[in-house]
Write a structure and sequence with these properties.
It contains 14 helices and twelve strands. It is α+β, with helices and mostly antiparallel strands and 441 residues long. The chain has a four-stranded mixed beta sheet with strand order 3-6-7-10. The protein has a four-stranded antiparallel beta sheet with strand order 4-5-9-8, with no helix packed on it. It is globular, with a radius of gyration of 23 Å.
Length: 441
């Protein structure tokens, strides 16, 4: 077997021992890798240049139940079996699925080095469906889940607005009840909504009450061809295929029964959803960094300058080493997170890992920045060119802001992480103090 280019694969895929991965994970990685390579990655760079993944690709993934792995583990086994989905690609039963299977999926979906093509397929399932599963009423689930889980309809998560990106609590889109109390009348705008342009529905954050987080709710809002809804694609740095969308809502009438959970609980639902989103981003970004750095490593083994192969230059080796150390440290951290998610229940994970997940997401963006910049600099003029040998690393470098801003911008994530750690520490300290006090009684 040919030895991979250094930094091109995580240690466990290089044959090194790992305590995290079992035979089920290894079988899944092989099947997932083969499917995603054939049906997505072989054409990812071309489709990104054309700014569109053909619609048949989504249908191929949906037919193979290969959108379902985008959801957080454990999978909704009861719903899936009811819909006739008993396994994924014939190698993992849905009831055996854990977060390490999910992490492998996120990694393989990002293997092209580009976030756009995979994001165009999986974002709605990953972040738009889970709130319905966790908090939606039985009637709401019956109405929407069969079509969404089987990929017959598409959805998205619609939180951010022109005036409220990471500052979710200040969302301004409003929903007022109709005189008969049976409908919400929604007005406002949503911006930077991934997959929105193709989505039949959105899980949307809207203000049903007063100011601040307690006034927010989640509502399933129809989008495509729905009265009062207008959408247009947006161009952002990189992510050309992801369908980033600006949505305008003018007197959009939506049944009150489309409310997810309870009014005023939207902020709580959103924050729980963010943990999966941020960890998914961190895992995918780790793979992007790996693609960039290993591409540079391979290039430096071949390119000659100043009478030497680049790899013979100490300064080049030093730059690769610095970036590689950051990359492999990040890999170890995200794998640790994935394992911890298999051992903690949802409430424990939300409490104990919420702040740390934000920190990992922020760190992943920094590591991608370092690895992509390293690659572009070592490719030289080729890395500065959007065609030819350096096209991929040039595109990856363009996507760095997309790793550091969406899903919670970096500085907000760093602050959130420490605030959450302080909160957990104080809460635990109070519990210890109460425990000591009760002992004296």
């Amino acid at each position: 077997m040919k030895r991979p280019i250094p930094f091109s694969e995580p240690p466990w895929l290089n044959g090194l021992p790992s305590p995290y991965y079992n035979d089920s994970h290894r079988r899944w990685q092989k099947a997932c890798h083969a499917f995603v390579t054939e049906n997505l990655h072989n054409n990812s760079l071309q489709w990104e240049a054309e700014e569109m993944v053909p619609p048949h690709v989504f249908q191929t993934f949906a037919k193979a139940n290969m959108l379902i792995p985008a959801m957080p583990a454990p999978l909704p086994v009861q719903w899936l079996k009811r819909l006739g989905v008993n396994d994924v690609l014939g190698v993992v039963k849905v009831e055996e699925w854990d977060y390490i299977h999910s992490a492998i999926y996120s990694d393989e979906m990002s293997r092209s080095g580009l976030a756009g093509p995979s994001g165009s397929l999986s974002t709605g399932m990953a972040f738009g469906v889970p709130p319905l599963l966790k908090f939606g009423s039985e009637a709401l689930q019956e109405c929407f889940l069969p079509d969404l889980l089987l990929g017959r309809k598409r959805t998205c998560i619609a939180i951010t607005e022109p005036g409220a990106g990471s500052d979710v609590a200040n969302i301004e889109t409003t929903a007022e009840k109709s005189p008969d109390g049976k409908s919400y009348i929604i007005n406002g705008t949503k911006k930077w909504i991934t997959n929105g342009i193709w989505a039949h529905y959105s899980t949307m954050a809207i203000r049903t009450g007063g100011p601040g987080p307690s006034g927010l709710s989640l509502v399933v809002v129809p989008l495509l061809d729905y009265p009062g809804v207008s959408m247009r694609r947006m161009k952002v740095g990189g992510f050309a295929t992801s369908g980033t969308t600006f949505i305008e809502l003018e007197n959009v009438k939506v049944p009150v029964k489309n409310l997810v959970g309870e009014e005023g609980c939207g902020m709580k639902y959103i924050m729980t959803n963010f943990n999966h989103e941020r960890l998914t981003i961190a895992i995918g970004v780790t793979r992007q960094a790996r693609v960039a750095l290993s591409s540079a490593f391979e290039y430096c083994l071949q390119r000659e300058a100043f009478g030497k192969i680049l790899m013979e230059q100490a300064v080049v080796r030093n730059r690769l080493a610095q970036a590689g150390a950051l990359l492999e440290s990040l890999q170890a951290w995200v794998e640790q997170f994935a394992y911890q998610m298999t051992q903690l229940n949802r409430e424990e994970a939300d409490t104990e890992l919420g702040g740390l997940t934000a920190l990992a997401k922020a760190q992943a963006g920094k590591v991608l920045d370092e690895c992509a910049r390293c690659a572009v600099l070592l490719f030289g003029g080729n890395g500065f060119t959007s065609t030819g040998r350096g096209e991929l690393v040039e595109r990856i470098y363009r996507e760095v802001p997309g790793a550091r801003i969406p899903g919670g911008s970096e500085d907000v994530m760093l602050d959130l992480a420490v605030r959450q750690l302080v909160k957990n520490y104080k809460n635990q300290t109070k519990l210890l103090e109460r425990s000591k006090g009760s002992f004296k009684l």
